[in-house]
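Quick question, first post here. What does this chain look like in 3D?
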Amino acid sequence: MNAIHTSDSIVIIPTYNEKENIEKIIRAIGNLEKCFHILVIDDGSPDGTADIVRKLMQEEFSDRLFLLERKGKQGLGTAYICGFRWALEHTYEYIFEMDADFSHDPNDLPRLYAACHDEGYDLAIGSRYISGVNVVNWPIGRVLMSYFASKYVRFVTGFKVHDTTAGFKCYKRRVLSTIELDKIRFKGYAFQIEMKYTAHKIGFRIKEVPVIFVNRREGVSKMSGGIFSEAFFGVIRLRLDGWLRKYPQA
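> Answer (accepted):
Ran it through. Tokens below.
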């Protein structure tokens, strides 16, 4: 008889055409000593990513792997918000964001968990820039763009997080239940900035955990110029919000 894998934690992984990576990342998370449940949110991948997930659900991971399918590419931010709502409905205490392509190391999940569970932080960020520049296999132009984007956010907003665009995070449940998710307006890179900045403005405790970011080896990057322009102008709007908007209380 198989053991039932219960968990207080769920890892949300948005996917679009990740057939080369999805089974490997699910198995890597499944092999960790601590049990993490996994929620894949697939935006209608034509390459059969969702079919691979369904097969794993049926054959091996029936009690800890879940799938939400959406029609067409609707944006990273909306995928995560869809996942956050699902996780809150299913009473998880620790809710993670993670990429499917191994740019985020599954072995760092317990470190982010420990920052929230053991050390009492409300949001743990897997940070590429808290201890230098920890990025592997990125073109130098992309490294500089990402690094100075975070510097720009710090300058405009006064927000002290070093890696403001990081997409590897652990939230305590109370953060996502306090943030008014229907008021989060950005969908791309700026979504990551907006979520952190909103958590900061509400007064939640944030810790940056140093991680090494490795550029994807398989599959195709979803990065685009539009994502960066959204982030550039979005930061100015966030700063104005910081002055004018009334945020919920933690």
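The mean pLDDT is 88.
The radius of gyration is 17 Å.
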